[in-house]
Specification:
The structure holds two protein chains of two kinds. Chain A is α+β, with helices and mostly antiparallel strands. Chain A contains seven helices and 14 strands. In chain A, strands 1, 2, 3, 4, 5, 6, 7 and 8 form an eight-stranded antiparallel beta sheet that branches. Chain A has a six-stranded antiparallel beta sheet with strand order 9-10-11-14-13-12, sandwiched between helices. The termini of chain B are far apart. The longest helix of chain B has 20 residues. Chain B has nine helices and eight strands. Chain B has one domain. In chain B, about 30% of the residues lie in helices and about 20% in strands. Chain B is α/β, with parallel strands linked by helices. Classes of the chains: A alpha+beta, B alpha/beta. Chains A and B meet through helix 2, strand 5, strand 8 and helix 5 of A and helix 1 and helix 7 of B.
């Protein structure tokens, strides 16, 4: 019998009462609950969602959703795609807005939402978050590829981890085809460095095999940056600098750099970290 | 990958002027698309009224009716609202008003009522009018509809970039998830299905309280809704959607204090223009008329 952290919650709290049985969804029927929103979770290793709704007369419903993402990498990934702040009020990373808490811990991604929000509902949302957090007794590491991001001037809020090409489109549109071959067997992370006006973007993709990385690099060069034949970093049409390197299973690309030196140094730093880690990630 | 691939660099080559890709893909002001059909510009009317919402954020019916009347009159170029509506529908029509029932931000009843009232006044029998979202494909009145009026609020969307007028027709297909591939890229094809094609007489994009950013599985937080108090009205759904996206993007820039592109980009609006030729997303090909309240107009 599947035990979700939702089962740790009380049936009633501060006048809110759980309405009916918990709803359980898997990969085959997540659309029934999140039509249009299901793809995000399906694009990771989503396994099971347990949903419970609490109601109280004269107050907004509180909707509790606990996603079992199959592993901590994908739990972090699902969380990272809507992260705006770096905080850890709950779980291993959290984001709190009015009437809403999102957090990830171990293999779970948790969402608790009151809408429209009210002061009473907001307090209960926080209590539910704390109870679920406490019920998940273990922590698991985030994706190791994050360790390849050089920390200097990294905007941590901007880190996005994904395994589906749609999310590259979302955060840095490169082309209307999947020229980097991002898919189920790859891990990708994109992040911003610097501040507005001096910002640059770093993309790392880790492939299953060296040959996969090399083929992706060749397509990237063919369709996006043919000048790479001469240099690892080149100036593009808007005056900024872009670059790309591949080594082992890792492809790293930098975009929007104000100068060649900054782009080159960032790429160098990535591969220094990769080599120091025994070309593993 | 043998077909022509559109890349970011093509946009960068012409980065000086505002256009489709700027708002929809890159959130920059670059231009590469300009091959919409013909030279005619699509007229879009933005009407705003600072009294459109009550203290609780609900839509005020009388104000909404007045806003819609002004917009439709300006759109059609007629002298008054009734004359304007009579150019859209008439006594022989069966009218389906395609609404949107998303729980956190549905089409306000005040907008549905305002449309329905004018459709009746234009001569359509009440029994020949239906309003629905989920039953658009199966509703008896929609099945025999000769005319459709499309209305929904604009919001960001976790997969398609925005919940748009174009996307609002997804309930006309049996299996909506079949259109979810590639960030809902080809939603415009739904508009060419036999039971939909050529029937849309008016598009009303509700901009009273748009959602400009989403978080979590429900992609909603009241923190990211604001009282814009507007309606965007037009015949060309692509032009209306593209104009709405420009406002959303401007709001995101204002709120976050930096460029913050839509995540994901609203690819389906761009492709509705460039791949499916449903309408024009290029601001250069849109005639935007603004009416009413101007504070915080963002466009």
């Amino acid at each position: 019998m599947y035990q979700s952290p939702v089962s740790s919650l009380p049936v009633s709290l501060e006048g809110w009462v759980a309405s009916g049985k918990d709803s359980v969804y898997d990969r085959t029927n997540l659309y029934d609950y999140l039509d249009g929103g299901a793809e995000l979770y399906l694009s990771f290793g989503f396994r099971t969602l347990v949903n419970r709704t609490y109601s109280r007369l004269g107050q907004p419903d509180i909707v509790v959703d606990v996603f079992d993402m199959g592993g901590s990498k994908d739990a972090f990934g699902a969380f990272s795609l809507s992260r705006e702040t770096v905080a850890r009020e709950f779980g291993q990373g959290s984001q709190c807005t009015e009437g809403s808490v999102l957090f990830w811990k171990d293999r779970y991604f948790v969402s608790i939402l009151a809408s429209p929000q009210s002061p009473e509902a907001n307090a209960v949302v926080l209590t539910f978050a704390r109870l679920i957090d406490e019920s998940i007794e273990t922590e698991s590491p985030p994706p190791e590829i994050l360790g390849l991001l050089p920390p200097d001037s990294l905007d941590e809020r901007s880190i996005r981890y994904f395994r589906h090409p749609a999310w590259l489109d979302a955060y840095y549109f490169l082309a209307d085809e999947n020229i980097l071959h991002i898919g189920d067997t790859t891990e990708a992370v994109i992040a911003r460095y610097g501040s507005q006006g001096e910002r640059l973007v770093l993309l790392l993709v880790l492939y299953a095999k060296d040959g996969d990385a090399r083929r992706a690099y060749e397509d990237f060069k063919r369709y996006y940056l043919p000048e790479l034949s001469q240099n690892a970093v080149v100036r593009v049409e808007d005056g900024t600098w872009s670059g790309c390197k591949v080594e082992g299973r890792l492809l790293a690309a930098v975009f929007d750099a104000a100068d060649n030196g900054r782009a080159s140094a960032l790429l160098q730093s990535v591969f220094d970290r990769y080599r120091a880690n025994g070309r593993r990630s | 990958m043998t077909q022509r691939i559109i890349t970011r660099r093509q946009f960068l080559k012409t980065s000086a002027s505002a256009t489709i890709a700027g708002a929809l893909l890159l959130d920059s002001r670059g231009s590469v698309f300009g091959f919409g059909e013909g030279d005619a510009r699509s007229r879009v009317v933005l009407v705003r009224d600072e009294n459109a919402l009550d203290d609780l954020g609900g839509a005020r019916e009388a104000v909404i009716q007045d806003m819609l009347d002004r917009a439709v009159t300006a759109l059609t170029g007629k002298s008054d609202a009734l004359a304007a509506w009579r150019t859209l529908v008439g006594p022989k029509d069966v009218v389906g008003i395609k609404s949107n029932a998303w729980g956190y931000l549905p089409t306000p009843e005040a907008v549905e009522k305002a449309i329905e009232l004018r459709v009746i006044e234009a001569g359509v029998a009440e029994e020949n009018i239906a309003i629905t979202d989920q039953e658009a494909r199966t509703h008896p009145t929609f099945k025999r509809a000769t005319a459709l009026i499309n209305t929904r609020p604009l919001r960001t969307h976790a997969w398609s970039g925005v919940g748009s007028l174009i996307k609002n027709y997804i309930m006309f297909v049996e299996r909506p998830s079949a259109y979810h591939g590639d960030s809902c890229a080809d939603l415009a094809t739904i508009w060419k299905l036999p039971h939909v094609a050529g029937k849309t007489r008016l598009n009303v994009l509700v901009m009273l309280t748009p959602l400009f950013h989403g978080v979590g599985p429900h992609h909603f937080s009241s923190e990211f809704v604001w009282g814009y108090r507007g309606l965007l009205v037009g015949f060309d759904p692509v032009a209306v959607d593209a104009t709405g996206v420009r406002i959303l993007v401007a709001k995101r820039r204002e709120h976050f204090g930096e460029d913050r592109p839509l995540n994901p980009p609203a690819k389906h609006i761009q492709l509705a223009d460039t791949r499916h030729h449903l309408g024009s997303a290029d601001p250069e090909k849109i005639e935007l008329i603004t009416l009413g309240w101007r504070e915080g107009i963002l466009i």
